[in-house]
Design goal:
Elements (H helix, E strand, L loop, with lengths): L1 E5 L5 H8 L4 E4 L18 E5 L1 H11 L3 H22 L2 E7 L10 H20 L2 E6 L2 E6 L16
Length: 158
């Protein structure tokens, strides 16, 4: 799994296209499940999955328990890794970084920031390569998969 992370309009799409020019793109539907991207899979190909933040925003409305949402996200990451392994795919995740700057005062906005941060941490811990994109500059952060996500570990406040 490959991970590109950066702020809004930071150049993530251009960076992904530079590294994976033939990849297919799939945007998560906020009203659908986390696994609908599987219909877009082509064995041996590359698939970029975007729309994680919008999906999370909708999920906050339907699920009040952050631990359950985090388990759901961890399960999605596990399925992504399994599909990559079983079908010889390259899966590419594009995440929006929203953890920098002022901490939101509203409970819902803090939940969104926390869950987006946990998703980014979990995805980064599982990814073979992680790139941080800012102002169109792409900085490689990691190039080895070293850990398995522990979804039963107690959640810590950021």
């Amino acid at each position: 799994m490959q991970l590109f992370i950066g702020g809004a309009c930071a150049g993530k799409r251009a960076a992904v296209v530079r590294h994976f020019p033939t990849a297919a793109w799939y945007r998560l539907d906020p009203q659908a499940g986390l696994f609908d991207w599987q219909a877009a899979l082509e064995p041996g190909g590359s698939l970029v999955v975007t729309g994680w933040l919008t999906w999370l925003e909708a999920a906050l409305v339907r699920e009040p328990d952050d631990d359950r949402l985090r388990h759901e996200l961890a399960a999605a990451l596990a399925v992504i890794l399994e599909a990559e392994r079983d079908l010889g795919l390259t899966m590419i995740l594009v995440l929006v970084e929203i953890g920098r700057g002022i901490v939101p005062m509203g409970h819902r906005d803090r939940r969104l920031r926390d869950l987006a941060g946990w998703l980014a941490q979990d995805a980064a811990s599982l990814a073979e390569q992680v790139w941080f994109v800012r102002h169109g500059l792409v900085q490689p952060l990691r190039q080895v998969n070293t850990r398995v996500i522990e979804i039963d570990a107690p959640r810590s406040d950021c």
